[in-house]
């Protein structure tokens, strides 16, 4: 079982991250994808991944951190990101570009600046032929338009919560869709309908730890070992065994993130 999206470098894990990884492994997790959120955390993220072979990491700037970067600072950070990618290409735990994308719910966000930073990072994904891990909250159509423009055709639409038509457009673009804690709430009708209806080869599982805790944990901190129980919810929705859900979603992750190793 793979947790395809987890922020183990977040401050919430500062005191016990090693134990959290060990608990995930003990629960049956064979891979954890940890995308970066800002350039200042890259060295910390890489050190964490190298301490735990279970982890694969991605490099990028999250849209919710974009407003912390000025137009004068961005060319420097973009070059730092390019250099970090180039320096990681021989690292077997480096898996792609992320977490990048757009967020339509950030109050007071400069949308055009978010778009500019996203587009620059898509150019890197195109140039290095790497998959992308994307934040698409209330911005699926805008993200897809840019993927098409820059010819990026492989990756994950994390925490998907769009329409069935948007889901199909993502699939047509070569993406798989991430489902996690939100799917475990019975009131999340649209997400659960999608989880039931979409082709199994388009679905991956995630926790987004420490956020989006499943129903049995909320509002407590989420953790990657919970992906096993989340798989159980998907299995129930689909009428499949947990083992089949685990095998098929694992295949989906490794297809779109071919550099990811399982441990």
Overall strand count: 8
Instruction: Report the span from N to C terminus.
Output: 10 Å
Enumerate how many helices there are, as a single number.
9
| Share of helical residues | 40-55%
Could you give a quick summary of the protein structure above?
The protein is built from nine helices and eight strands.
Keyword list:
263 residues; alpha/beta; TIM Barrel; 8-stranded parallel beta sheet; 9 helices; 42% helix
What does the model show?
With 263 residues, the chain is α/β, with parallel strands linked by helices. The chain has helices spanning 17-27, 42-51, 74-88, 111-128, 140-150, 164-172, 189-197, 227-238, 242-256, and strands at residues 2-3, 31-35, 55-59, 94-101, 132-135, 155-158, 175-179, 203-205. It has 9 helices and 8 strands. Helix 3 packs parallel to helix 4 (111-128) and helix 8 packs across helix 9.
How would you summarize the topology of this molecule?
Blueprint: E1 2-3, H1 17-27, E2 31-35, H2 42-51, E3 55-59, H3 74-88, E4 94-101, H4 111-128, E5 132-135, H5 140-150, E6 155-158, H6 164-172, E7 175-179, H7 189-197, E8 203-205, H8 227-238, H9 242-256
Parallel strand pairs: 1-2, 2-3, 3-4, 4-5, 5-6, 6-7, 7-8
């Amino acid at each position: 079982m793979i947790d395809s999206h987890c922020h183990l470098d977040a401050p919430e894990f500062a005191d016990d991250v090693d134990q959290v990884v060990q608990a995930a492994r003990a629960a049956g997790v064979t891979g954890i994808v940890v995308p970066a959120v800002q350039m200042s955390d890259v060295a910390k993220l890489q050190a964490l991944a190298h301490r735990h072979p279970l982890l694969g990491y991605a490099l990028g700037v999250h849209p919710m951190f974009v407003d912390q970067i000025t137009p004068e600072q961005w060319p420097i950070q973009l070059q730092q990101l390019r250099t970090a990618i180039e320096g990681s290409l021989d690292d077997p735990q480096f898996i792609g570009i992320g977490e990048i994308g757009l967020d339509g719910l950030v109050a007071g966000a400069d949308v055009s600046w978010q778009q500019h930073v996203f587009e620059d990072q898509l150019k890197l994904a195109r140039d290095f032929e790497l998959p992308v891990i994307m934040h698409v909250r209330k911005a699926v159509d805008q993200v897809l338009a840019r993927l098409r423009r820059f010819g990026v055709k492989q990756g994950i639409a994390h925490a998907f919560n769009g329409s069935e038509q948007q889901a199909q457009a993502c699939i047509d673009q070569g993406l798989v869709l991430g489902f996690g804690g939100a799917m475990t709430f019975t009131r999340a009708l649209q997400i659960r309908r999608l989880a039931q209806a979409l082709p199994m080869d388009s679905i991956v599982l995630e926790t987004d730890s420490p956020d989006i805790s499943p129903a049995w944990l909320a509002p407590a901190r989420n953790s990657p070992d919970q992906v096993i129980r989340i798989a159980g919810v998907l299995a129930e929705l689909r009428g499949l065994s947990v083992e089949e859900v685990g095998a098929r979603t694992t295949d989906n992750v490794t297809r779109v993130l071919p550099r990811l190793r399982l441990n």
